[in-house]
Amino acid sequence: RIAQRRAAASGSRARFQSGDVFTHVAPAGGYPTVLDFGVLHQFSPDQLPRYVDHLARLVAPGGSLLLQCFSDAARTRAPGPRPIERAELERTFTGRWRLAALERCEYLTRERPYPAWFAWVRLDPCAAPVASPA
């Protein structure tokens, strides 16, 4: 709700929805932009294909995924989300996805900032919509 208030205060007409990536049903055609700030790094490598398949049900063809996750530079971090290597992001977003930009940044937490990745990922505009499971 904070994002919605800030967007409205700036004059933006952006609308925000939140939901579980595995159960949320997108409107017909999907969303033009989906945000993932702190979700991807919660999954093990063997869970990522399922996560990415579900993202394809949410993002409109030609749409964007903006994500931020802990990077491998944070390997000294105590228990918590696993760090993600650049190569893992490159392997994860292939096929109908294109990694449009990938930059190092900081993930701001209450304790301190941690090394992170910020990625802009595009879904192929010619990608056929992925049917939701029945």
Could you give the topology of this structure?
Layout: H1 2-9, E1 31-37, H2 48-58, E2 59-70, H3 86-92, E3 97-108, E4 113-123
Parallel strand pairs: 1-2
Antiparallel strand pairs: 2-4, 3-4
Structural key phrases:
134 residues, alpha+beta, four-stranded mixed β-sheet, 3 helices, 4 strands, 19% helix, 31% strand
Mean pLDDT: 87
Return Rg in Å: 15 Å
Contiguous helical run count: 3
Derived structural class: alpha+beta
Strand-residue fraction? 25-35%
Backbone shape = globular
User: Could you give the count of β-strands?
Assistant: 4
Helix content: 10-25%
Biggest sheet, in brief? 4 strands, mixed
- First-to-last CA distance: 31 Å
What are the secondary-structure elements, in order, as H or E?
HEHEHEE
Spatial order of strands in the largest sheet: 1-2-4-3
Unreliable residue stretches: none
Walk me through this protein's architecture.
- It is a single chain.
- By secondary structure, the protein is of the alpha+beta class.
- The chain has helices at residues 2-9, 48-58, 86-92, and strands at residues 31-37, 59-70, 97-108, 113-123.
- Strands 1-2-4-3 form a 4-stranded mixed β-sheet.
- The chain is globular, with a radius of gyration of 15 Å.
- It starts with a helix and ends in an 11-residue tail after the last strand.
- The relative contact order is 0.18.
- The mean pLDDT is 87.
